[in-house]
Amino acid sequence: MKSNCTIGNFMLLLLVMEAHVDAFQSSVSDGTLGTRNKGFRRSNNRGIVKNRYLWERHYPEGRSRTSIQMDRWDGDDIRWTSRIRRKLSRRRMVLDTSTRSQVKNYLIALQVVMYCYQILTTVVYCRRKFPSYWPNHAMEIIIDSIWGSAFVSGPLTTTFGFSAAFSRAQQSYRYITSGLFHNSLTHLLIDIGVMGRQPIWLASGLGAPLYLTCFFGSIVIGNLGHLMNSTDRLFDPKIYLGSNGGICGLFGLMFVCLARMASANSSRNSGPSTDQLAGMVIMLFLAIWMDNVSMASNIGGFFGGIIIGVLCGPRYTKDYAMRRKNSVEFDRASNAYRSAMGFGIMPTDSGLIPLKLLYSIVLTIAIAVPKYRSIPVAIIRGCMGVM
Length: 387
Hints:
Layout: H1 2-30, H2 38-58, H3 65-72, H4 80-129, H5 134-147, H6 155-160, H7 174-177, H8 185-196, H9 201-204, H10 208-229, H11 244-264, H12 274-289, H13 295-312, E1 316-318, H14 320-323, H15 335-341, E2 345-347, H16 355-368, H17 370-373, H18 375-385
Antiparallel strand pairs: 1-2
Helix pairs in contact: 4-5, 4-8, 4-10, 8-12, 10-11, 10-13, 11-12, 11-13
Membrane topology: Multi-pass membrane protein
GO molecular function: serine-type endopeptidase activity
Signal peptide: 1-23
C-alpha cells in the first residue's frame, strides 16, 4: 500500500513539474512572466533573442563554434603585439615574393640582351673595318658573330672583358662588366642553363639582395683569383668573359646554407646536393674546354660565394611555436625553401654582417677612391663608344 502511494506521489510530482516548465517557457516567449521584475525579464528575453540571432549569424549551420574560432586564430600567441608583428611580416613577405622569385629570370634576360647587343656591335664593327666583305659575305659575318667565331673580336669584348694587363691600367670596371658578356652562343646557353637549374629557393628564399650581392661579388672575387693566379700580370692581354664566377659563387652560397640547415636539422644530410655537384662539374669542364674561360676565376668565385654566405647568409634555428602540437603558426617560407630546410626550421633575418652595412662600406670606398668613383662614367662611355 505504501509503495503504491509513493509511486503515485512521484508521478504527480512529475506532472506538476512539467506543467510549471511549460508555463515558464510560454511566459518567456510572450514576455508575460508575472508582474514582479517584469522589466528585467523582458530585457532578458530580448537578450536571449539577440544572442540567438548573433549565434546564427556568426556560426552558420553545420559549423561549430570551435571550428570557427580555429579558422580565425592567428597563431598560438594572442598578444596584440605579436599579432601586429605577424601581420606586418606577412604583408612584407607578400610584397617581396614576386621580386625575389623573378630575380634569376631578370639576370638571365640581362645576359641574353647583352649578348644580342654584343652581336650587333660585332657586325657593325666588321662592316666598318672590312667594307669590301660586307655585300658579298654579309651572311657569313652575321652567322660568325652569332656563334662567336668571328675573325675579329667585337668592341664590347675588348672594352669590357677582363684581362690581367688591362686591370692595372685604371680600368677597374672590367672586374664587373666581364660577367655580363660571353664568348659564344654555346657559352651563353651553358651558363644560363646551369643558372636556371639551380634551386628556386636560392632566389625566392634567400631574397633578391643577397642573391644579387653573391652573384656580382663572386664575379669580382673570381677575377681577383684569376689575377692572383696569373704568372705575368703586365703582359697578359688575353680577355676572359662569362658569368661563370657568379654562378660558382651561387653554388658556394648554396653550400653554406645547406651546411647550416643540416646543423639545425639532424635528420637532414649534411653533404652537397646532386645539383650542386653537377653544376660545379659543368663549370669546371667549361673552363677546361673553352679558351676565354678562366679556371681560377671559377674556383675563386666559388670561395667568394662561401665567404659571402658565411658573412651575410642567414643562420637556421628551430622554431618553437611551429614545432608545438596542433600549432597553426604562420609559415613564411615557400614550398621549395621549406623542403630544403625541413620541418620546424626557420632562417634568421640577417647574417653576421647585415647587407645594408656591407653596401654602406662599399659605397664609401667607391666614393673615396677616384678610380672606383669613375666606374659608372667609364661604363656609359664604353657603351656609347662602341657604336
